[in-house]
Structures are given as structure tokens and as C-alpha cells.
Amino acid sequence: MSGERTGTGGLARERARSTAGAAAFFLAPALLLIAIFIIYPVIETFDISLYKWNGISSDRIFIGLQNWKSLIRDALFWKSFLHNLIVMAFSILIQIPIGMLLATFLDAGGRKLNIFKIIWFLPNLMSSVAIAFLFTYALATNGGIISSLATLFKGTRTNVDLLGQNPNALLTIIAVMAWQFTPFYMVYFIAGYGNIDVSLYEAAVIDGATRGQYVRRVAIPLLAPIFRTACTMSLIGSLKYFDLIWNMTQGGPVNGTELMATYMYKLSFQQFNMGYGSCAAAGMFILITAIALLFQKIFTWKGDY
Amino acid sequence: MAGRERDKEQKGHKGRLRIGWGIAFFFAFLQVILTLSPFVFMVLNSFRKQFDMLSQGVFHLPEPWIFTNYTEVIRNGFFGYFLRSVIVVAVSLLLMLAIASMAAYPLSRMQFRLRPLIYAGIVAMMSVPMHVTLIPIFKMTTDVGLYDTLGALIGPYVTFALPMAVFILTAFMMTIPRELEESAQIDGCNRYQNFSKIILPLSKSGLSTLAIYNGVSMWNEFAFANTLIQSPGNKTLPLALGQFKGEHSLDIPLILAVLTLSALPMIILFIIFQDKLVKGMMAGAVKG
Question: Which of A17, B107, B231, B287 lies most in the core, judged by the most C-beta atoms within 10 Å?
């Protein structure tokens, strides 16, 4: 009896071991890459932040928390962070509601509105670099779209300076970002609507609900998790934003559109102050993680309530 | 009486519905205009001569239509940039899909002690900003001699797409019925054959969405490329824009021709595969 039990116990253990072996085999490449290209670099960034180093020469001077002390007192870093927060707030308030409205329209209209979906999604296919170049010309003070429109309405030649002065520059960037990313959230909400069981709509209609009532009372509450994920994505996206600004304004005029990422990039790859640049990058990592966690916490609490 | 009242009510309802749709279409067309006007600006002006933009007005039809901007761009090595982007994206995408589906298989199918921890760890990597890794990866790339080669981009491109891909594929594979594997097991298939003969073919639609989604972002990637590649002969398409701008800074129509040519492939692919994109996002949106 007891011999048999140890026998099956051994078998189960053997099975578990072979499962663990197979799991290790399948997971190894992914975990190895993540270790090399994400975990190690993040640790290394924190390590480099303790040095004074130009990134090229072999002598790195250990200076302890000096960089961190400077970063905490660095007005430009906090100004960049503030810009990130402004961009974040506007992104969430503009892109997600409009994206949701567009998706609601497409969901109500069905396949015959497909052409709208295709057209609306086009901006999200362009690279941020391409968008930056396109809008630098399309919004040029001289001969851009807005200046041309203003000229048309006023009848005399009018030049509107959008990117050359503050705070216009940051607001313009926010508008361009809305142009680029709203379609992404639109598709996300289309997917969310698609996941709602058709029978719920049918039941609502049988109960005499109009389309509007269905959207307000049935669909939107069911889309709550989508809202939460969309907000989290938008939040993280805006806090690490880089490509568009780098190619449009390089953070200018006079740091008016400087974000944490552009500031960090300038420090590291233009001024070759890799130690301090790493410190800014590590600070950025801490801030993003903290805000994302905070956000998640607030939202989960609301969800549970 | 009651019938007529109901008719009236229904008519009122229909009228309101029509007004509602009218307003909706008004805003829908407004959004179309907002979306398309930069594209119209881009395409129209790419067919203009350099100095005609200001004199003709940006929304007038070009007079005359010229194609020299395009021929000039192509003569200056546009297809080289294009080809390099195709190579990097194809290699990265294949590797990424292979590695992600391998990782998703045990996470969705096997019971082992570290499973929840590994899954949570991989998903948490989604929110790590790539900029934090930029300096160490730059250093690593220089140390192993990959700096300024296309190979430098593949590791970061694959790795930064992995967490999201593993997340979506794990959710996807969980929906595949277990009976299929069990019957295969009876027929003598082991785990490795189960994976390659059953799970992988059934995950095709999830894989294709991930291919579209990540293909677009790899095709457009800028920050790594800008940091790890230096010489024009190794640059990918997103860097070509800066390269052309550096060489022809005043020739705006020529730059717009570059923009049009580089946006075109993604637009064509999207129009062909757009349903797949939405379906794949549905798989990812369930769990959110």
C-alpha cells in the first residue's frame, strides 16, 4: 500500500519536473531577451546615475548621489515633468472621449460606415517622425494650413505663428498628438463594443430602449475596463513621449515644449553627460511607475466601490 | 386611437433619430476633414515645384504637376532605406512572434509553481519606458561591435514588443479547447509536437494581428534607430526623413514626396488587413 503511494508520488513528482523542464525550455528565449534588453539596462541606468561619465572615455568617476541631488534641484527637469503632466491631462481629456464617440458612431452604423473607419485611422499609420515633419510644414507660419485659412477669412495675408512661441507651441503639439492618437483609441473602443454580447443589445431593444439609452445604460458601463486601460496607456504614453517633439521643436522654443524624455536625450546624446542623463532617465522611470501605480489604485478602488 | 398615438410617437422618434444621425454625420465629416487635410496638403504639394508652394497657395492644384520630386528622391537612395526597413522589420517580427508564442504556450497551458510570478513579471515590463534603457543599450551595442549596423536594432525591437505580445497570445491560447491536445496526446504527441502541430496553427489569427500591430510600430521606430545607427548607408526609413531634410532643407515639396512614399506601404497594408487589426485588439481588450 505505502509502496504504491510513494510510487504514484514519485510519478507525480516526475511529471511536475518534466512540466517545469518544458516550461523552462519554452520560456527561456523570452526571459533571456527581457533580462538582456530591459532588466539589465534599467539596473545599469541606476548604476550609471551614480557616476560622472561622458559615455565614451573609460574613466567613470563615482560621485555617489551628487547627480540625484542636482536632479531634485533641477528646475528644467521639473518644468519638463510639468509639460508631461499637461500633455497627459489633455491627451486623456481629448483623445479618449473623441475616440470613444467615433467608435460609438461606427458601432451604431455597422459595416456601411467602414470607409469612415479607414479614413479616420490613417494618421495612426504614419510614423511620429513623418507626422512631425508634415506638421512642421503644414503649420508653418508662412504658407501653412492655418495661416492660409486665416488669410482666406481675413482677406489679407495673415501669418499665424504656432510653433515659434510659447505657449502656442505646446498647445500645437497637443493638437497634433490628438490627431495622431485619437484613431488608436477609436479602434480600441471598436474592439470593446465588439466584445459586448449582441444579445444584450437585442434584450435592450425588446425592453424598448433606444440606441442612445443602450449606449448610456448598457454599453458605457460595460466599457469601463476599456476606459481604464485606455487611460493607463495614454498616461504612460504621454509621460514617455519623445519622437514627435524631438523632430518638431527639439523641446524649444526656449524649453517651452521640453519633456522629460527630450531633456534626458539632450543631456545624454548631445551634451554627452551620460551620468546625469542616466539620472534623469532613472528619475523619469520612478515618476512614471509611481503615477501609473497611483492611477491604477484609484481606478481599482472606484471599480470595487 | 391608441394606435394613432403610437404611430405619432414612433414618427416623432424617427424624426429625432434622423436629426441625431444628421448631427452625427456632420461631426463625422468634420473629423474626415480634420484627418485628411494634412494628407491632402502632403500629397498635393509633393507634386509642386520648390518655389510654387507660396505663390500658388497650398491647397490649389499644382500648376503644372511635376514628378521630379519623386524621381529625385528615388535617385537619392530611397529604396535603400526602404529595403533596410523591410529587412529589420521582417527579421524582428519573425523572431518576436516565434519567441512570444513559445513563451505564451506554457503560460496558458502548463501548471508550474513560478507561472503566476513569471506572467506578472512579463506583463509588468509593458510599462517600462524604452528611454530608461537607451544609454545602457547604446553602451552594450558599442561594446559588442554592433553599433551602426542593422543587427543592433533587432534585439531591442524584438524585446520591447514581447511583453504585450506574450500578454495577448496567452489570453488567446487560453481560449483554445484543451480536448484537442488531449486527443493528440493519446495519438502519441508530446508537448513540443502539441505546440507546433496544434497550438501554433490555431493561434494564426492572433499572430497575424500582432504582426500588423507591431509591424507598424517597428516600421516607424525612431529613438533606437536614431541612437544606434549613424551612417546614411545603414539608416532605416524613419531616419531617411531627417537625412533628406539635412540635404535639401529648403525644398519642402521634395521632403513631402519622401513623406508620401514612406507612408504609402503602411496605408496599403492597412486597407487590406484592417479587419484583422480590430479583431486582434478585441482579444487584447477582453482582459484589459
Answer: B107
Residues A243, B223: C-beta atoms closer than 8 Å: yes
Q: What is the mean pLDDT of residues B150-159?
A: 96
Shared-domain flag, residues B38 and B90: no
Helix (H) or strand (E) holding A61: strand A61-62
- A196: contact with B, CB 8 A cutoff: no
Domain that holds residue B145: 76-287
Is A34 in Cβ contact with B163 (below 8 Å)? yes
* Interatomic CA distance for residues A47 and A278, integer angstroms: 8
Give residue-wise pLDDT tens across range B25-54.
Answer: 999 999 999 999 999 999 998 998 887 777
β pairing state of A51-52 and A61-62: antiparallel
**Interface subset of B 134-173, CB within 8 angstroms of A:** 134-140, 155-156, 158-160, 162-163, 166
Task: Domain of residue A24: give its range.
Answer: 2-48
Please identify among residues 78-137 of chain A the ones whose CB lies closer than 8 Å to any CB of chain B.
Answer: 98, 101-102, 105, 108, 113, 116-123, 125-130, 133-135, 137
- What per-residue confidence (pLDDT) applies to A54? 85
Residue carrying the nine cell digits 425592453: A207
Could you tell me the CATH number of the domain that includes residue B247?
A: 1.10.3720.10
pTM to 2 decimal places: 0.87
Which residues are within 8 A (CB) of B157 and not within 5 positions of it... i.e. 6 or more apart? Answer: B88, B89, B92, B96, B218, B221, B224
Do both A85 and A128 map to the same domain?
A: yes
Tell me the average pLDDT across B154-169. 94
Residue in A55, A129, A190 nearest the CB of B241 = A129
Whether residue A96 sits in one domain with residue A30: no
A35 touches chain B (CB under 8 A): no
C-beta of residue A277 within 8 angstroms of C-beta of residue A268: yes
Residues of B (32-91) whose Cβ lies below 8 Å from A: 32, 34-39, 41-42, 45, 53-54, 57-59
Q: Do B139 and A44 touch (CB under 8 A)?
A: yes
Confidence at residue A2, expressed as pLDDT on a 0 to 100 scale: 43
CA distances from residue B24 to A101, A221, B18, B28, B30 in whole angstroms, order as listed:
10, 22, 10, 6, 10
pLDDT at residue A157, rounded to an integer: 77
Tell me, what's the ipTM?
0.86
CA–CA dist B105, A229 (Å, integer) = 25
Q: For chain B, what is the domain count?
A: 2
Verify that B37 and B111 share a domain, yes or no. no
